[in-house]
Design a protein that fits this description.
With 641 residues, the chain is an alpha+beta fold. The chain has 4 domains: 199 residues, Heat Shock Protein 90; 161 residues, Ribosomal Protein S5, domain 2 (2-Layer Sandwich); 129 residues, 3-Layer(aba) Sandwich (Rossmann fold), CATH 3.40.50.670; 92 residues, no CATH class. 41% of the residues lie in helices and 18% in strands. The chain is built from 22 helices and 20 strands. Strands 1, 2, 3, 4, 5, 6, 7, 8 and 9 form a 9-stranded mixed beta sheet that branches. A hairpin with a 2-residue loop joins strand 3 and strand 4. Helix 9 packs parallel to helix 11, helix 11 packs across helix 12 and helix 18 packs antiparallel against helix 19. The longest helix has 31 residues. The radius of gyration is 30 Å and the shape is flat.
Length: 641
């Protein structure tokens, strides 16, 4: 296409104006990150964040979160309740909050001093991306409700009763036309992890998580807040000191910090702003690290503890084995990106830095024996770092890789383009032999590893560098190792496949390899280069033909495919038979999961007779009719039996 044709096609008619929540449904990734698992769970966090904001404002002390059997979610709080009076736009305030982007009570500076939901898109975005949403508000002695379908109100706000309580209850079901990933479901582990964090970050706030699908239930409430969070982080470690916890406030910024050193060799620092997990850090983390390094070096120099080291402590030396939680409350937070993963307020850095300098120096002065043991660990880390530097320099000079060499037991591939190359890390020489025979030598390389590699979680860097199996992997991958040496652009394979045996030892080796990549080569994981080979669960033999099958679902499909060959039932063809049987299989599994919570006879009767209790429950007459039918059918089936 030439320039003139391009101008002809690009006119005023090409400019689209997306009204209301249409933009959210058109480009959901702009608002929740993606429509995969992360975005699916992000819907819950948007509503929960609003409830927690009520707690921050001092009006809520209990939040209930329930995952229902149909993957819908209810979030209920006992806060003030979303206002339902008429807004200047002509709609109720409740409808404005749920249908207008950047609308909410977080902007006037009076309703909320601090808030995580500052962008004002949370509730409306969840509404837009839900096939249905129902909100119930308890406020001013009355109960109000309104329902939506894909962001469109199905009627006005209705008053449905009286109450002496206050709060908001939102029930939503993610729209499967937006969230299309197969098998998408809410993970109890993901939900409970984040909800536990919320409870740690808000002293005394009670959060109840219930899963109707499995019957699981947890209550989270912590009176000591983030100090208990650090204890939780170090629960599997031997610690050097009691938790150091302090807080302070300046220029409308509140800071809470808790920290404790343990005997591990890696840091675990969690940062939050207004209860939002800033996983990419930001200015609060920068200020904390700078103050920590300065204070530790200042104390060590003052007490003449660095006399044998010949240089200052590095930030990594001081943070080795440190578990810490940094929580700041900022009136006007500046996040980088809609999903709020990095804090950008420059003033926060100086406030955090000043507080840590003051409080940590005071702690060291008041607790000299604890301070000495902490500095001693830092000095040990520095010595290991210096030894590792020497070892790395020696390795660079002697490395066979520099002259193009590769580990002796490795079978490399012929292709040189990393995007087309795969390497299989296999368990032992015998597996290596089989893998070498089965591989496609054009694009697939095989590296046999001898036994279990070093657990890098429990080893310092100098010991890691001296491990033969790790040296082989680093040489094969070509990335280098160490903070100053890793170059992910030099990786020789864009598929690194961990292929271990399907037993306990294999699982352990796989975990050790993943730990190595996570701690020493995280950029390789971030780029999506690391894979795990999944061993098949079944081997099916039909005549002389053998087929390996991944899981039970695939086995059902395989058996169905082979048993349905040539079958004709009236007007049903092979594909229709397969579809029918798969539907029956799904029905059986759903029935099994539901029968743990409901009587199986009632369930079967409801499903077999297509009784719509969901619609009936809203209408007393329909509900009575449905129960009459249900009773008659059960009695009839019992008599027939």
């Amino acid at each position: 296409m030439n320039a003139k044709e391009g101008l002809k096609d690009y006119t005023a008619d090409s400019i689209q104006v997306l009204e209301g929540l249409e933009a959210v449904r058109k480009r959901p990734g702009m608002y929740i990150g993606d429509t995969m698992n992360k975005g699916y769970h992000h819907l819950v966090w948007e509503i929960v964040d609003n409830a927690v904001d009520e707690s921050l404002a001092g009006f809520c002390n209990h939040i209930k979160i329930t995952v229902h059997a149909d993957e819908s979610v209810t979030v209920e709080d006992n806060g003030r309740g979303i206002p339902v009076d008429l807004h200047s736009s002509g709609k109720t305030a409740l409808e404005v909050v749920l249908t207008v982007l950047h609308a909410g009570g977080k902007f006037d500076g009076g309703s909320y001093k601090v808030s995580g939901g500052l962008h004002g898109v949370g509730s409306s975005v969840v509404n837009a991306l839900s096939s249905r949403l129902r909100v119930e508000v308890k406020r001013a002695g009355k109960v109000y409700t309104q329902t939506y379908t894909r962001g469109v109100p199905q009627g006005p706000v209705e008053e449905i009763g009286a109450t002496d309580k206050t709060g908001t209850k939102v029930t939503f079901k993610p729209d499967t036309s937006i969230f299309q990933e197969p098998g998408q479901t809410y993970s109890y582990d993901i939900l409970s992890k984040r909800i536990r964090e919320m409870a740690f970050l808000n002293k005394g706030l009670r959060i109840t998580l219930t899963d109707d699908r499995t019957g699981k239930k947890d209550d989270f409430q912590f009176s000591d807040g983030i100090a208990e969070f650090v204890v939780y982080l170090n629960s599997a470690r031997k610690t050097l000191n009691n938790v150091i916890a302090f807080s302070g406030a300046r220029d409308n910024v509140e800071v809470d910090i808790a920290m404790q050193w343990n005997d591990s060799y890696s840091e675990s620092i969690h940062t939050y702003c207004n209860n939002i997990n800033t996983i990419e850090g930001g200015t609060h983390l920068v200020g904390f690290r700078a103050a920590l390094t300065r204070t530790a070096n200042s104390y060590a120099a003052q007490k003449n503890l660095l006399k044998d080291l010949k240089e200052s402590l590095d930030g990594d030396d001081i943070r080795e084995g440190l578990a810490a939680v940094i929580s700041v409350k900022v009136r006007e937070p500046q996040f980088e990106g809609q999903t709020k993963t990095k804090l950008g307020n420059n003033e926060v850095k100086g406030i955090v830095e000043s507080l840590v300098n003051e409080k940590l120096a005071d702690f060291f002065d008041r607790n000299p024996s604890v301070a000495k043991s902490i500095i001693g660990k830092c000095i040990d880390a520095a010595r290991a770092r210096l030894a590792a530097r020497k070892a790395r320099e020696l390795t660079r000079r002697k490395s066979a890789l520099d002259s193009g060499g590769l580990p002796g037991k490795m079978a490399d591939c012929q292709e040189k383009d990393p995007t087309k190359c795969e390497i299989y890390l296999v368990e032992g020489d015998s597996a290596g032999g089989s893998a070498k025979q089965a591989r496609d030598r054009r694009t697939q390389a095989v590296l046999p590893l001898k036994g279990k590699i070093l657990n890098v979680e429990k080893a310092r860097f100098d010991k890691i560098l001296s491990n033969d199996e790790i040296k082989m992997m680093v040489a094969a991958l070509g990335t280098g190792i160490g903070k100053d040496s890793v170059n992910p652009e030099k990786v020789r394979y864009h598929k690194i496949v961990i292929m271990t045996d399907a037993d306990v030892d294999g699982s352990h080796i796989r975990t050790l390899l993943l730990t190595f990549f996570y701690r020493q080569l995280p950029s390789v994981i971030e780029k999506g280069y690391v894979y795990i080979a999944q061993p098949p669960l079944y081997r099916v033999k039909k005549g002389k033909e053998e087929t390996y099958i991944k899981d039970e679902k695939s086995l059902t499909e395989y058996l169905l495919k082979n048993s349905a060959v040539g079958i004709k039932i009236k007007n049903l063809d092979e594909e229709q038979v397969k579809s029918l049987v798969l539907s029956i299989e799904r029905f059986k599994k759903y029935l099994t999961s539901m029968s743990t919570k409901f009587d199986e006879t009632i369930l079967k009767t409801v499903l077999a007779n297509n009784l719509d209790l969901t619609t009936a429950i809203k209408d007393k007459t329909k509900l009575e009719a449905a129960f009459t039918t249900l009773t008659q059918k059960i009695n009839s089936d019992t008599t027939d039996g």
